[in-house]
Amino acid sequence: MWQPDRSSKQALYQQIAAYMERRIFYGEFPPGSILPSERKFAEQINVNRSTVVQAYEELRASGIIESMVGSGTRVSKYKWGAPKQTPDWLQYLEGGTVVQPNQSFLRTIREELDTGRLLIDFASGELSPDLSPNEAIRLLLSEHSLHEDLGYDNPQGYVPLRQALVSYLQQYRGIRATESSILITSGSHQSLYLITQRLLSPGDAVAIEDPSYYYSLPMFHSAGLRLFRLPVDEKGVCPEGILSLYREHNIRMIFVNPNYHNPTGRVLDPSRRERLLDVCGHLGIPVVEDDPFSLTSFAGNPPPSLKSIDVNSTVLYIGSLSKTVASGLRIGWMVAPQSVVNRLTDERQQMDFGLSVLPQRIAAQLLSSDHFDRHLQRLRQELSHKRNLLIDALQRELPGEVSYTLPQGGLHLWCKIKRPVDDGRLLEEGMKRGVVFVPGSVYGSESGYVRFTYARPQPDEIGPGISKFAQALRAVVK
Amino acid sequence: MWQPDRSSKQALYQQIAAYMERRIFYGEFPPGSILPSERKFAEQINVNRSTVVQAYEELRASGIIESMVGSGTRVSKYKWGAPKQTPDWLQYLEGGTVVQPNQSFLRTIREELDTGRLLIDFASGELSPDLSPNEAIRLLLSEHSLHEDLGYDNPQGYVPLRQALVSYLQQYRGIRATESSILITSGSHQSLYLITQRLLSPGDAVAIEDPSYYYSLPMFHSAGLRLFRLPVDEKGVCPEGILSLYREHNIRMIFVNPNYHNPTGRVLDPSRRERLLDVCGHLGIPVVEDDPFSLTSFAGNPPPSLKSIDVNSTVLYIGSLSKTVASGLRIGWMVAPQSVVNRLTDERQQMDFGLSVLPQRIAAQLLSSDHFDRHLQRLRQELSHKRNLLIDALQRELPGEVSYTLPQGGLHLWCKIKRPVDDGRLLEEGMKRGVVFVPGSVYGSESGYVRFTYARPQPDEIGPGISKFAQALRAVVK
Ligand SMILES: Cc1ncc(COP(=O)(O)O)c(C=O)c1O
Ligand SMILES: Cc1ncc(COP(=O)(O)O)c(C=O)c1O
């Protein structure tokens, strides 16, 4: 059992509050769940009851927990619930601190995969290696001297790549960007990091989706942000709660992944998109649009980006080649107002002195060549084929026991298990049988879900993988 | 003229102290220079004299300025002045914040270079493109499928590269490292960043060399560190001041670049190395050894690393391929205790989700191949040839007007101008004539120096470049 550190300068009640916040944050106490009583918890960790009372008071003040007459303390469910202005960008250019990340199920899965044991992998959120355009990259490397003149490059990103992205963004995402409004980053991840570290300050409140991209969570936490969750349903994230979150908690930014959302695979409904931009435009709250999956769209024409209909410059747009070309290239980008790009460029120069130039050259060449369109066509076909194999396997192995929205793009299927299930135990049983997937509770507050990444396993592994999964499920629910 | 922000929450005197510290830090007031009187400064920025008195008091308390009876306030010259223990690594694993960088001369130079105008470049601190092993890289790319399976990689760095570095470190630097004690970073720069952000806390005092690597300065500043400078003379950095810095300011870390130091090109004397490790070992202060230049050693056998004689695990060792292979690959590494590597790995995963895997594969292959040794031989020859051309040109163009220590390795020559000179005007005159170099005042407190990077220009540009420089110098001193 955790114990507060009595030699620390931080007050005991603060340590306890921080500890409980972490546990809540990492899903040990989902929204609506009951916390241990003050008395009991105080006994467990050997402090006075009044210290725990004070810690809970702290959490209550920040809206994380709430007391209910006669029935203890529970984790808040955050009740969710629009004049126009451009965000005050300059005001966002202040502060940030650093803390450590954390994993749990994901670390277990990673360790299991690292053993080298043969596993069917529905967990790694990326393409299988054969889905990357390896042959095109080989050709480009042999035709062009991409490896020559490998000197320090522009910290904002290799200019020809930014030029190629101007066309890419116009053609595929309806976004009119300029070279100088694009910052190249190490995947979308580094764009998110720079935003959380440089545009927000510790203590700032932000709204994120529930569920949402796992690896953004420790990053938000490190930046000292207070997180409020907006539920995601069939039509994507619900913008209803934004106004009241703004009034109650003064949220300063909203993070969304509108197309083929990770982990649910869902697409944000057009009227909700308008509503979202409307509300945020009125309140002057920037929306961060994280858009790594759009080009996988099985039907060919991905839903438009929020940025393409953003008239108030409310949106910071983030893209990546990780989910369409190769995640290990580490090529991502942000489209943002010039002042933001300039400041974040300075920041990133301090962090890493710019991205390696070789992958940037490959990306620039690839995006400007015919290879890219051909690659996308093949990618979409293969991905929809793998999705179909997964659906077939689920229907065969678990008829009536699971439900899901059929993803029309992206890498993931979000699968509800109809009977109640402990997803940690399910993972354990799965690993015993040689299959890994991600327990849904990793991503947010909804329980009873599993994320299957159909993009990762080989086609002939999908059926056997789901049959192992079905066995694991039977071992857990019986 | 700067003015304090009266709407800020920060007290006026604190704003003023922070502002003056920045000006001092960026060289506007070199050590020993006199600050404006409290009365005059108060008038200029429209505050009460007592507020400036309070601000100066603050700076005095942190040892940055000192008052002299009857002659005002001046920037401290920092007077520099040993039982053993391993640094308490765990204690270093806390805190950090983020601020923006700054440039001045360097930004001017960069902008000038970016215009595309033909300039002879003694300013960019890197190899000319032809000195990189382009042919070897081309061969490796055509022989191996380095571009296949570009999935997310280990955030600590590509395992075969860490393995190759274990041999490299043993063979070339006498360091016994293990795969798990190596963290691959985006150049040495990211290693320094992770150290300053993650192992130190705002307000911590550290000792650095005077002069020192320019781009580390904004990074230190961002981390909120208080900097104390140890002078570098013919024998490298003087360890004498460490003890008193420790006593007076409780310095928590020391940053040194012992071999072919940037910008002076000097090598730390063997007895000073022992003394440095001795003192720091006694005090338990970690020494960060920044070692990017050693393998350029013209004589072939570089001076040993501090890390190779470090019995107390006092040294965090940082290396890079930037100065020996190519800076745009962004391959660097840190050798550190496992606990430090683990924590910094988590931190870097949050920042960028790991380095691009392609340059790491190229580096791994290159280091494990015969190409590498052959490349080093050619590199050393060419660099010493360029150094000779520079020396010849200086002797021809400016006999008796400049002095320097002859560098035995590295990329830079640190050139003293014997007559007093305003190095900013010298740069201006140089740029008019088509030559760029770095004014010495960028690096620290010594004035009247210029850094020439002989590695960067082509051999046939060196003579003409120095002749332009000589004209510029005559325009300034006459
Ligand atoms: C929604 C979302 N955003 C961002 C990322 C980060 O990806 P990268 O940094 O590789 O672009 C991921 C990766 O899984 C993701 O799913
Ligand atoms: C002394 C020193 N350290 C570190 C660096 C950073 O180099 P890199 O990040 O490219 O390895 C430099 C670059 O000039 C340097 O001179």
Automatic annotation (TrEMBL), chains A, B:
One of its GO terms (molecular function) is transaminase activity. SUPFAM superfamilies: PLP-dependent transferases, Winged helix' DNA-binding domain. Its cofactor is pyridoxal 5'-phosphate. Residues 10-78 form the HTH gntR-type domain. The keyword Lipoprotein does not apply. It holds the Pfam family Aminotran_1_2. Gene3D superfamilies: Type I PLP-dependent aspartate aminotransferase-like (Major domain) (3.40.640.10), Winged helix-like DNA-binding domain superfamily/Winged helix DNA-binding domain (1.10.10.10). Keywords: Aminotransferase, DNA-binding, Pyridoxal phosphate, Transcription, Transcription regulation, Transferase. In the C-terminal section; belongs to the class-I pyridoxal-phosphate-dependent aminotransferase family. This is PLP-dependent aminotransferase family protein. It comes from Paenibacillus profundus.
